[in-house]
Write a structure and sequence with these properties.
The structure is a single chain. The protein has helices spanning 11-23, 42-47, 68-78, 89-106, 112-121, 126-150, 165-179, 188-197, 201-206, and strands spanning 2-6, 27-31, 55-57, 64-66. It has 216 residues and is of the alpha+beta class. Helix 1 (11-23) links the parallel strand 1 (2-6) and strand 2. The relative contact order is 0.15.
Amino acid sequence: MLRMSTYFRSQAAFRVRIALNLKGLAREDFFLHLEKGDQFKPEYAALNPQSVVPTLILDDGKTKLFQSLAIMEYLEETHPHPPILPKEPLARAWVRGFALINVADSHPLIVPRIRNYLTKTLKLSEEQKLAWIQHWLYAGLKAMETHLSEHPDSGEFCHGAAPTVADICLMTQVTPARVFGCKFDAFPRVMRIHDRCMKIKEFADAHPTKQPDAEK
């Protein structure tokens, strides 16, 4: 069985949980408390030298995959049904580009190691740190909203009639934005798709609040 390192608040792990659920793939989770530094313990650092989650260990118990977008594309290539990427090259490029707004731009700037650096090394106040986080989350939400308004194939979902990697990454833009007090009045398309996805069991079951290690 697949095994995956995870933490309920990790948006990267959230993305992979959704993808695994959509593909109908069972997994066994092992939990790391990122706020307590479990990811820096030698045994996990040996497994993932970045000391981040998720790490997906394949059925052979040895092969490991890392970085959420690469894991999702591996799942798509090895378990193509149901698809989470469109078949047509231009559509695939659009979906990947949309996903990268979250994966490559917004999310890396707000993860715990960045937040800790802002406060512990740069000595920013809590108010300054929150302003940083909200700035980058809002930048991503604005870009997503604009792309959705211009994309002729967006509607119920980001692209087409079924969820794709774009919708998965939209979810992990909205979820931390809620945690950090962002407002969503300017992003009606983003929130319409978010709310539609949350009606899908595979998305809802992957949500951070539904995980066994979830904390209030």
